[in-house]
Automatic annotation (TrEMBL):
Domain of life: Eukaryota
Residue ranges annotated for the START domain, each copy included: 29-136
Family matches, as Pfam families: START
InterPro entries named among the record's database cross-references: START-like_dom_sf, START_lipid-bd_dom, START_lipid_transfer
Protein known as: ACO12 thioesterase
GO CC, alphabetical: cytoplasm
């Protein structure tokens, strides 16, 4: 299921996926962004720049170029949290950060992830519901333009690849 909400120049996106693996197995796979390019074609590379602590890592991510644009790059903080109670979800939160050791380069267009991530809810011992969230600003819009003008095919394809990767 895919939901969108537009407000000003911000588009909020929610994608809900039913996955046939337990939530405690989906959590480490989704919180380790070095796996992301295996299922998300918007991620060309993803490397850990700094492990802030056990739950927080800073990654450097590159995305392939869109027609007529430079490839994009991102410096992001990925924070993972385990549930405090069984009814609560696992959380993987993502946002862009500035790191002086990774200044913007001329070969990439430095982009920003305002707010994104996953909530992973346990449905049973063998399945879970994964919700992906992203607040997209006008800078990331070219990646979603096709989805907004016609179909949600690319978002749907990425979600199906995510499910296939997890299962």
């Amino acid at each position: 299921k895919i939901w969108t909400h537009e407000e000003g120049d911000v588009l909020s996106l929610k994608v809900e996926m039913q996955v046939k693996i337990p939530s405690h197995l989906a959590f480490p796979l989704l919180s380790d962004f070095t796996f992301r390019q295996q299922w998300d074609k918007h991620f060309l590379t993803s490397e850990v720049l700094q492990a802030v602590n056990e739950d927080d890592k800073i990654y450097y991510v590159t995305s392939p170029p869109m027609t007529g644009h430079k490839p994009k790059d991102f410096v992001i903080l990925v924070s993972q949290r385990q549930p405090c109670k069984p009814s609560e979800p696992y959380i993987v939160a993502v946002k862009s950060v500035t790191l002086t050791s990774m200044p913007p380069s001329s070969e990439y267009c430095r982009s920003e992830i305002v707010c994104a991530g996953f909530q992973i809810y346990s449905d049973s011992n063998s399945s879970c519901t994964v919700c992906y969230f992203n607040q997209v600003t006008s800078g990331v819009m070219p990646y979603l333009a096709a989805n907004l003008t016609g179909s949600s095919k690319s978002i749907e394809d990425t979600a199906l690849e995510c499910i296939k990767f997890l299962e």
